[in-house]
Request: fold
Amino acid sequence: MGLMSTSVSVSRFRVEGKLEAPEIETVAKGLKENALSEIEDAAAEKTVGWTPFRSPYRPLFEDRSFVVGEYLVFSLRIDRKSIPSKVLKKEFSEVSARRLAESGRPYLSRSEKKMIREEVAHRLILRIPATPNLYDLVWSLDRQSVWFFSTLKSANEELETLFAKSFRLTLVRLFPFTMADLTAGLSDKERDLLERITPTPFTP
Amino acid sequence: MLDVAVSYNRYRFLGREFLTWLWYSLETDPKLAVSVDPAIEEIAVANRMVLENRGPAGLETVTIKGDDPGLEEGQTALQKGALVSELSLTFTSGDQRWRFTLKGESLHITGLKVPDTGPVETEADLDGALLEKAALVERAVHLIEGLFSRFIRIRISESWQTEVLVGIRKWIGN
Reply:
């Protein structure tokens, strides 16, 4: 579900830290250096990087089109390879049968089976194309906020890691406590009260 | 600031308390949303509500859904000690309508439907549509943050115990 979809899901973050000036150039550099690698590592099960919102399958940041008015709009792309379990089972069974015939023994040891499974998985990974997954992001520099258009835990974790690596800024997830602490404009005294609160029974 | 993982777990009850307070406030204070966004004309619980009761017997969940859901079952669950863990809301401003679901624990916004943006035929149209979409999402985010901010100030004040909770308990009892 991307930003322009009819129905979207949003995780919100507060951006902590200060971007080096000039800010747009710093962001552009971070995007370029951490764009999804076009030269795919054939053996990698997962590749993560930034890609332009307008050309998600051409991960090059050649211009400043990620700047849209007061917002920065780009996407996180996670390309993942997953071997269908039935394919893995079939290949494993064939190789195991062959090894047994070659060895002349009635069974394979646990470590031999483990090694065969790893060999088969490695060979299959090289043949399987990666599935690209796109997650859009809207960053407001003025408000120090990021909206990430996915609530998937794994995608959110990848975002936090890549964002920190690319821009040397920390994304703080906004959930009830952090919203109260960071966006509600509480005074120090009110923050102390916040830290001390405990659940209230709503029924007598 | 507290460690993020620690604060997420220690204060996860805050989201459920917020959604329960929000349902009560929407039912009893027609000016609540307008105080956050004066352009809002109507705000109401939409087509889905989930309530959770984390009692000694374990977790009990009640889900109410449908285009015109009867909320009596929800009120009954509250009487048994449940709190709202997911709440769908809809609001209007002019002839535009927003609809979304809030998850109590994370305050993630899911199923957010905002008014339609203009058609995209050229690159320039896309810029316009992106800006329009961002502004429409912003309206919903601003409302949620404003309502939550209102809640948290009440929640840490003395009036929570002396006034608000008294009102909520009376409403639940009715």
Q: What stands out?
A: The first helix of chain B runs from residue 4 to 10. Chain B touches chain A through 55 residues (CB under 8 Å). The beta strands of chain B are 42-55, 58-65, 83-93, 96-103, 109-113. The longest strand of chain B covers residues 42-55.
